[in-house]
Amino acid sequence: MSAGFEKADTSSVGSEMPADTSLQTALFDAVCESLGDAFIVYDKTDHMIFASRQVLDFFPISATMLRPGTRLRDFLGAIYDTGIRTPSASNHGAPSREDWLSQKIASHWRERFEAVERHGTDRWIRFGKRRLASGYGVCVIQDISEDKKREEQWRSDLERVQLTEDILDNLPFPLFVKDRNLNYVAVNIAFCEKYQTTVDEVLGRKSGDLFSKEVAQRFEESDCHVLETGEMSVSRQRQVSRDGVERDIVTRKHRIGKPGRYFLVSTMQDLPRDGADLDEFRFASTVITSSKNSYRRAYVPMNGSGERREPAAMEAIVPENFSGRKILVVTSDVVAEAAALRTLAKYGFEACSVRGEDEEEHFLEIASSSGISLDLLVIDNQLGMRCLELAKQYGIPVLVMDGFQLANELTFQIARHFNRSNHGQVAESIDADWEFTTVEEMNTLEVLVAEDNDINQIVFSQILEGLGYRYLIAPSGDEAVRLWTEHQPKIILMDISLPGFNGFEAARLIRQTEEGGSSRTPIIGVITQAFERDRAECAKAGMDDVIMKPVSPDILQGIFQTYLAGDIRQATM
């Protein structure tokens, strides 16, 4: 390389270069362009022999400064005049022009020299300089802005992670995080101390590796529900620690992240023995006396913005003639049970509760034999069909509600039920025909629900009535297609497992019928498990979206806001 450079006589600046020198220059330009870096080569008298065009990408100088024969001092002076320079650390403020040039030329005469300079707010430049034994010098200029940004981002992320760990480890209560596969991915010191373990023993493992099969199953049941629905879970438990002390604790579980990258965050806090601050946890103080009742759930649905759903107009006035009515609450959720009984007592209802179908059956037998007439059964939707069958057997009206409604919306729901009854609208039994809408209203049918399960039909009916939508319920896929043809609803909620045509077949038939038409009815698949194959099959059948059971007012209202934007109304609940 030096032999070729020697042919470039500095006295020939401004004259036409020899052919071999022009070829070398072209080759060097091609190499520099492929590398994306800028190169400068200068001789032992500090005259430039070669400078690639990429130099102009770094410094806004004239192209004439890159011509062979230009003095290195003149080239550096042109750079100084652009204002792109780094102040000397040894001086106060920016160095003078001569001092800056002296420093730069000195660095070019060092055998090896590397430096990184920041030009502007977001550009970093690396200079690599070599002085060969022959006296020739080479300077390589690289833009390392992306590398520096990644380095700074990595350092910032590391600091945030460290800060997060410090915050979590200083929390006085246990906290853990699980991924969508229910593996522990983070725990704090309080968690390890509570269960007398270490972080390394927990991370990457599941509840089944750390707890008994029964406890792990309870944990994962609640975990799956929160991850699948996005609803916050609040549960109260009594635990006996290794020192033999019994403690009541409340566990909260939240879903964070984005679809495909959801995480479960759980916290556990001890409750005081005197129940002084139970109102902070939004449920009444209830002593759990049986080990089989040591785990109960109270789901608090979330709305689309991620905020907790607040009860609407729960302090509705209950007419005096309702007081003295006899109500039986059937729920295994002790949190919701306590709140419901407290609310009913406040408004003068005579109420008591049982915690399952066996207790319900025994209670109704005794009440019947004693001549006691019940006005209403309030049943938790987490319980089985047997509870509803018993209500039908004894001819007692039923309200089916979720845990949140039992704890927060009971007054409103019961007042509406008895008001309807007083106006001749008798509560429907489980075998009732759910077509409540008149022929006139059918012309503007809003929601068609395809659902064959009796309990789910009741749940859909109560939610849609509460939200104020006109609806029909089809117990089979064939009936869903027929009702869609007759009434042209604005949206369809389609269970995928239906008798006759299943949900997929019914959706495909509706889409085929719509072909060539001007309208397209939104079809929402209703699934029970978060299986990707079900979601894919729903999309393949022409469905627009999917929701998961159990449904809630917030879930349905969110769907309606998305697909019925022009017809949406405020919930009356």
From TrEMBL:
NCBIfam families: sensory_box. The keyword DNA-binding does not apply. The modification 4-aspartylphosphate is found at residue 495. It comes from Rhizobium tibeticum. The gene is divK_1. The lineage of its organism: Bacteria, Pseudomonadati, Pseudomonadota, Alphaproteobacteria, Hyphomicrobiales. Signal peptide: none annotated. This is PAS domain S-box-containing protein. It comes from the Bacteria. Keywords: Phosphoprotein, Two-component regulatory system.
